[in-house]
Description:
The complex is a heterodimer. Chain A is α/β, with parallel strands linked by helices. Chain A is built from 9 helices and 7 strands; from the N terminus they run H-E-H-E-H-E-H-E-H-E-H-E-H-E-H-H. A 7-stranded mixed β-sheet of chain A has the order 3-2-1-4-6-5-7, sandwiched between helices. In chain A, helix 2 packs parallel to helix 3 and helix 6 (150-167) packs parallel to helix 9 (233-247). The termini of chain A are far apart. Helix content of chain B is 90%, strand content 0%. Chain B is elongated and about 80 Å long. In chain B, helix 1 runs antiparallel to helix 2 and helix 3 (49-59) crosses helix 4. Chain B: Pfam families: DUF2304. Chain B: The chain crosses the membrane at residues 6-22, 29-48, 68-85. Chain B: Keywords: Membrane, Transmembrane, Transmembrane helix.
Amino acid sequence: MSSSKNNIEIANNSKNNNLLSTGDKSVFLVIPAYNEENALGNLLENLVRFDYKIVVVDDGSKDETYLIAKSIKEKFQNNIFLCKHLINRGVGAATKTGMEDALIHGAKYIITFDADGQHAIEDIEKVTKALIENRADVVIGSRPFKDMPFSKRVANMIMNFITLLFYKVAVKDSQSGLRGYDALVIPKLNIHSDGYGALSEFTREIKKNNLKLEEVEITTIYTPETQAKGTNAIVGFKIFVKMVRDIFR
Amino acid sequence: MLYQILVIIVAIIAIAIAFRSFKNTRVSLTTFILWVILWLVLIVFTVLPESSAILANIFGIQRGLDVLIIFALIGAYYLIFRLFIKLEKIQQNLTELVRFIAIENEKEDSLNDDD
């Protein structure tokens, strides 16, 4: 009990200095990274300044992602944990690995964060706050569609519709990578999909376990790197096929 | 007739190969038995073509060969389905394994850091 009171105090404190971290040592960021040598270094350097604990999962990258993460970990050994998938298994699998590792190190709140630098660091606090103040078990940081390039907007709208159709959950952004979870709910989540489909599966599990969901609006930084990955039409189609197959499981 | 002789020869070779694989423990007993049954059935239908007509009659299909093709298709689709499920299972196991190794190594790393 005292710890949750503590958390609220911390959350209140952080209201005053908006850009500082919540200071809560049990907030873990999980960052799945696949071929992110360009963005990851910068991102990690920025994140450790906010004193977050960070689990980076290198998902079998073919570039220098792992070495970059490792060199930064050497500088901030107490804040960064580095997992390496020997073989690329997809963003869903990497996220799950990161979550399990975060739980081992005593995470109370787990925030997933994309490695490509598309999220604003200040948004982490928005997501965390809803968890710490106990307003939600799961928080989805939804990217406003008006900010998206047209192709992404269409793909994400289709994904939202499919998520609604198959999992009966209406969310503003079913494919957002910035999400927060209360660590207690993580073991309840049953995720089969290794790829981007896992994001929709997380949404399904929220409904199935009757979890309190809150959606907070976040900003998205679109650069050429962040445009190249994520939900495009082909990924969308693959997720769709996977969802159809899951029905026959 | 030539095709009957050919089918029988192919079937015998196929069974022989299956038997060798089974002896070398490359395939399981179930797979081996299924494989042998499949080829024996094929030999029966080749040597006694009328038998497929009987089967066709039972199912209300006009020609014996049609019955064989229909069953062959259904069988093939079933096999593909089974493979699909198996493959998915293997994918999941692989992910589990990769995850286990990743987390074990990470745990070891952070223990070393603490020293």
